[in-house]
Design goal:
The protein is α/β, with parallel strands linked by helices. It has eleven helices and 13 strands. The protein has a seven-stranded parallel beta sheet with strand order 5-6-7-8-9-10-11. Strands 3-2-1-13 form a four-stranded antiparallel beta sheet, with helices on both faces. The protein has a two-stranded antiparallel sheet with strand order 4-12. The chain is globular and about 60 Å long.
Length: about 350
């Protein structure tokens, strides 16, 4: 049995993209019930301003895809058949992400996980998580930074538009007071070229892990010495990801899996170019706890185990779809057991049933 649900989660504060502001996060929860293995759940939730498809588009397509998926499951399919089904959803990465998530969970439960999953990783790992601090006045910045440190975060991502203002001395103060802290600067493509030359001196002796998307002409291997760079939204698909990983083995890459779609194709790409997950960071697209749990699994099995991952976005919602022990909100680290991994099925009255297929 497959059921599609629609959800709409209110944000604590208005979420603003480059083009608009949003009060709610919309998406689909897809559940599959196996008579022997129980219930599985996954999420498809394109984000306006980031995703190539809209929610209204996937809402229509998901019903046809769910019927095809249900028919496929009756055949005891192998991974090549699943991949063939997923290829038909190439124009809908968020649906690919959801159906490949359920597929991976099923294969894990049946002890038929792909070789990369089954042979490479220990039974349980702890994943580090970074916190995020936005653009704010110094007093508010101090309060937010103090709270992050109190919660135990060791890696903090800081929004850093140009001009830098008082940010360098603020970060220097906290790095001297708390030597274990590391910072990530999210430039959001706002830095002019001359800011790249100013960076080394202004941020000297501050433990900057990387600068995310310094400007809108991101290109591999052309950065000034001393400027560690992370690619994120400038990579739009798997082919572009392959290009960056092949051309620049030293760069950091931030991966939002639901933008790439098929988890199996994504894993093959990462392992081909970064076999040990070096400098690969996983991040959310503001999914609910259902989607974030899938991303936690990918961070555990494919991401850099020495780096923190961007999973602390549940705090943006007034209330999530899963109980607090499955949201890992405001947690600087979370344990994940890939071998016994299974996402709880949400039991929330806010979920509205769209269709059930028997």
């Amino acid at each position: 049995m497959i059921t599609l649900y629609h959800y709409s989660l209110p944000f604590e504060k208005i979420f603003r993209s480059a083009s608009a502001g949003y009060t709610h996060r919309e998406g689909l929860i897809i559940t599959y019930g196996d008579p022997d293995l129980g219930l599985f759940s996954a999420e498809a939730a394109p984000l306006p301003g980031f995703s190539t498809e809209s929610f209204s588009e996937i809402k229509t397509k998901a019903q046809t895809a769910a019927r095809n998926f249900h028919t496929l499951l009756k055949r005891e399919p192998d991974l090549p058949l699943f991949n063939s089904f997923l290829e038909d959803l190439n124009s809908y990465p968020s649906l690919q992400f959801a159906f490949s998530s359920i597929t991976l969970s099923l294969l894990i439960s049946k002890k038929k996980a792909p070789e990369w999953f089954a042979t490479r990783f220990s039974p349980a790992k702890t994943v580090q998580i970074n916190d995020v601090i936005g653009v704010m006045q110094p007093d508010e910045f101090h309060r937010s930074m103090t709270n992050s440190i109190k919660l135990g975060f060791k890696t903090i991502k800081v929004k850093c538009p140009y001009p830098f203002g008082e940010l360098p001395p603020l970060l220097r103060y906290y790095s001297q007071k708390y030597p274990d802290l590391r910072f990530r600067l999210d430039a959001n493509q706002s830095w002019p070229d001359h800011a790249l030359d100013e960076f080394p001196e202004l941020f000297e002796h501050i433990p900057i892990e990387y600068v995310e998307e310094p400007n809108n002409s991101m290109k591999s291997g052309v950065w000034p010495p001393g400027l560690p760079v992370a690619f994120d939204e400038s990579i739009g698909n798997l082919d572009e990801l392959k290009g960056v990983l092949a051309e620049d083995p030293d760069c950091f890459v931030v991966i939002k899996p639901s933008l790439y779609g098929n988890i199996f194709a994504l894993s093959e790409t990462i392992l081909r170019y970064r076999s040990m997950g070096s400098k690969v960071i996983f991040s959310t697209l503001l999914e609910s706890a259902v989607g974030r749990n899938t991303i936690l699994l990918l961070a555990t099995t494919l991401g850099d185990s020495d780096l923190a991952h961007g999973l602390n976005t549940g705090k943006l919602f007034k209330k999530d779809l899963l109980p607090p022990d499955h949201t890992f909100t405001d947690s600087p680290a979370v344990a994940c057991d890939p071998i016994n991994f299974k996402i709880p099925v949400p039991d929330d009255p806010r979920l509205k049933t769209l269709i059930t297929i028997y």
